[in-house]
Amino acid sequence: MAPIKPVNPFIISAAASGQKARTTAAMRRRLKLRKEIWPDFEESMLWRRADFVGFTTVPRTMPIIIRIINSLDKKSAGSVYFELWCRAFDDFLVEVKDEYECAFSAGYEGQRAVRTWRERVEVLEKFGFVWTKKAPHGAYRYVLMLDPHIIIEKLKGEGKISELEDLALKTQLISIGGGTRDQSDKT
Q1: Is 41 domain-assigned?
Q2: CB distance 127 to 151 below 8 Å
Q3: CA 70, CA 59: separation in Å to the nearest integer?
Q4: Is the pTM of this model over 0.85?
Q5: Residue 37, in any domain of the structure
Q6: pLDDT in tens, 128-176
Q7: Pick from 15, 19, 91, 79: which is nearest to 47 by CA?
Q8: Is residue 100 a contact partner of residue 113, using CB atoms and an 8 Å limit?
Q9: Which domain holds residue 179?
Q10: Is the distance from CB of 7 to CB of 178 less than 8 angstroms?
Q11: What is the dihedral of CA 77, 112, 56, 11, to 10 degrees?
Q12: DSSP-assigned states of every residue in 95-155
């Protein structure tokens, strides 16, 4: 049996591309359920990505990805990873213009905020989740966000991912219709 191709989390949605998203049967069912549960609900209370700028595509596996990142090193770099991800556009190149702003957004403040943030970026680079380039004065300037599913598969092969986390990630991928990556898909 041929392996299931994964859902590419980087494909731009219809809403993000300006096209009108088609209404699926599942969406109609959820809308009906929402109306039943909250009959006084107003549509204006929702954040709709099609109505705003400043959003990014986030894979549904992100909570498990963050958990795995946090388990790899005692420095728990998951919040830094997610903060960087949220700064990425569809080219996944992040231009870091203010390290303190990134640090604060990732949950660090005070005198050691930038140092702590930099240490977490080093962890992400050490495990292969990001590639970085620094400015001449030593601050991080560019971060390239790599496909976390590929990196996790590589780390699994190195024995750095627990069976429980691997199973959780594979189960989530399959439940969203993504399957798992086949080794031959990697370049």
Answers
A1: no
A2: yes
A3: 17
A4: no
A5: no
A6: 999 999 988 878 999 999 999 999 999 999 999 999 999 999 999 999 8
A7: 15
A8: yes
A9: 149-185
A10: yes
A11: -40
A12: E-S-HHHHHHHTT--STTHHHHHHHHHHHHHHTTSEEEEE-TTS-EEEEEEP-HHHHHHHH
